[in-house]
């Protein structure tokens, strides 16, 4: 399963597109597998309470998708992270070993 990421999520993955070894049924399962593979991306996608950030957008093969939507085998999923609005700062995702804003998440 290929996942293409945009914006600050690239700091967590180190690449624009990553391949996950998973066979998901839903978009939610893809995002769960992505966060397990790249835990530094979690603050960009989810609130501290574990809810998906309202401004996060997910597409499957170019069409907007919700977490409950099915995800066909071989689909390309794209993740567009939350955009900072100036109200509350979201930690910047950093690549493994990189010093950065989200060091408090490095053991999570």
Automatic annotation (TrEMBL):
Pfam families (alphabetical): ThiS (PF02597)
Alphabetical list of CDD domains matching this protein: Ubl_MoaD_like
Gene3D superfamilies for this protein: 3.10.20.30
Disordered, as annotated region: 82-108
Domain of life: Archaea
Residue ranges of coiled coil: none
Protein name: MoaD/ThiS family protein
Organism field: Natronosalvus rutilus
